[in-house]
Amino acid sequence: MKIIKGIQKTPEKVVVYGPEGIGKSTFLSCFPEPLFIDTEGSTKHMNIRRFPKPTSWEMLKNEVKEAMNGRLCKTLVIDTFDWAEQLCTENILEKYGKNGIEDFGYGTGYVYV
Length: 113
Known about the structure:
This protein is an alpha+beta fold. 35% of the residues lie in helices and 9% in strands. The chain has helices spanning 24-28, 57-69, 81-96, 108-112; strands spanning 34-38, 75-79. Strands 1-2 form a two-stranded parallel ribbon. The longest helix is centred in the last third of the chain and has 16 residues, at 81-96. 9% of the residues are buried.
């Protein structure tokens, strides 16, 4: 039987949560080779690498794929995820011809998101 010893390097998944203006983006800019997907356009004052602000869920997904497939960074930052969620929600509403997430019925729309 094979025994594995020592630290195994794997990608980390990190969520940074806090109020606006506390320095989350600045903190993440210190991670190894960061590349930002700035969903709300709040990093314009920072000297960082970033994709264009995504205007759709499809565009955001394509940026994530490009970063991963092209090995463009060591750290991919989605700043902020609540704005990314809004792009996803808008995509679901358009796809199913709904006006609001609650139009699916109690709690069902959030399952789609």
